[in-house]
Structures are given as structure tokens and as C-alpha cells.
Amino acid sequence: PLELGKTYSWSVALMCQPTQTDTPMVRGQVRRVELKAGQMPNQINSMMSQKAILEQAALYGKSGIWYDSINILAKLRQAQPKDQTLGTNWVKLLDSVGLEAIANQPLLK
After folding, report:
1. Beta pairing partners, 4
2. pTM over 0.70
């Protein structure tokens, strides 16, 4: 498992041909953080109301835990693709991190 508080760097390069001279590459960082008091583990429980799940996603986002925030919203959007509240929250989240260009694209399964 990832160590709490440690930042890890990652990169992915796309090589299509052995003689390729340009290699598209993406780099990023990820850091495991400890949940603050009152935060629930990332489990979408069928017993929870949609409002509670959305509040959980918002809490994760405000805490900088983007993976869990986006994961919750993506699962909800896949389950309920016509829900306008989910669509609005999805667009707001992606806009907040400069991803407005893909905010209205369909999700992959």
C-alpha cells in the first residue's frame, strides 16, 4: 500500500512504433492522505441516500481527495445518466480543476 503523506510520481508514455521519434507522455503525482475525523470510507452503500453520497463526494473534493470525489460522481452518473443534479455537480467539479473541455463528454464503461 501507499505510505501516508508520501508523494509518488508516475508517468505513462505511448509508443506505437519502435522507430517513433516523438513519444507522447503524461506525468503526474499522487499522495495518500489520511481521512479527517467524520469522513467515511469510500463505499457507495445502497442504504445511503443520493444526497448523502453527493455530500460525501463534496467533502472528498474539498479535502483534495480528487480520486474518491470523481469516482463517486462517475459511478452515480453511470447509474443515473439523466439526473441533472449529478450532471451539474460533475461539470462543476471538472471545471474547478480546468477540465471543462471534457466535462460534457460521455463516460466510458
Report:
1. 32
2. no
